[in-house]
Amino acid sequence: MTVTRRRFLAGTAATAAGLMVAGRMSPARAARNDQMNILCWEGYNSDGVLGPFRAANSGVTVRAESGTSDPDMINKLRAGETSVWDLINVNQPWARDQLYPEGLIKPLSKERFLPYFDKMLPEFAAPYPLAFADDGNLLGMPQRYGPFSFVVNTDKISRETAEDQGWNLFLDPAMKGRYGVLTYDNWNVIHMCLTAGLNPFAAIEGEGLSKFRDTAMAIFGGAKLLTDDLVAMNTALINGEIDAYFTGGTYTASPARYDGATNVRAITPNSGPVDGKGGCVWVELTSAVNNPDPSSVAEDFLEFVQTPEIAKAVAFTEGTYNPVSQMGNPDVLAQFDSEELDAIQMDSLAEEMARSLDYDVVTSYDALIDIYTEARRT
User: Fold this and answer.
1) What's the rounded Cα separation, in Å, for the pair 35 and 174?
2) What is the DSSP string of 291-302?
3) What is the CATH number of the domain that holds 247?
4) CB 118 within 8 A of CB 332
5) Strand ranges (DSSP E) for 87-140?
6) Pairing of β 141-153 and β 244-249
7) Of 13, 355, 344, the residue nearest 194 (C-alpha)
8) HSE of 47 in the Cβ direction (CA atoms, 13 Å)?
9) pLDDT over 80 at 190, yes or no
10) Which of 140, 173, 332, 373 has minimal CB crowding within 10 Å?
């Protein structure tokens, strides 16, 4: 459930108060420069990322904790843990829409970080608008990202057919019993909206809720397999138990592809109901927490993960593999071999991004998740 956004005025007041506290010279502040604590999605907490940073910053204590959802991590800050964490790594809508207005994060130095956008992939080098507040402040640095729609076995369903049919593939009576649903509930809700011809990020009421209910019932009714285990889903796809699965993308297909099963392919529809787009893309932003006792090491780490070797480590860690925005830098791209690039479908990444909406907060989530849960139980 999404917590209601607080008024911007209250957020700016909290920011100002945090900066006043941060400006006081004290022994506690000095000690915090020997610490760096990051609340993050899996990957940034791996030894492949943190080990080199610790080696390069002798005497600095580094703590990382992986969250289970964006709202869960954000609620830790709301509950008072701004005094614990120095960086937070969540998906793209939260920084601008909730974290910054509520005074939970603070702006980054443009002088220090804007030059990195110049070497990012074209989608981010503009620079990426969701990394900025309405007042122009830089709120976070993009890194990992990926299109997230559905996955097929191209030995059974060609890429061209899947892209052309889009979400209608799962409403085809001939597909009944031939697909699974990867039960990532929030994403399932988004994708069922798109299947129903609805905008998941606008208010849905009345007839729209009825369309969503019919679609959810149809998707669950035709599914052979329900699981939240991406390995089990890929295994079923490879073994021929299913020909496709609903909700998936580069993130879920990449482990199988990297193991040689390149017939497992993430699909982004050619078209869809929202401005002609039918896919959706997530982008992680890492932001500086508005810690009242800040550590200078935090922004050192944020700069550290822009370097070629560490950007590659962030991309290829924890058993799932993802592109990173820094791949526009030839020195970063050179870190990846041909098999790794194929695993993350680099050949079609730019065009899939162009066909995708940015992930956002689902406006009518409470009503939709109730319908979704009922359909799943049925």
Assistant:
1) 57
2) -SS--THHHHHH
3) 3.40.190.10
4) no
5) 87-91, 105-106
6) antiparallel
7) 355
8) 0
9) yes
10) 173
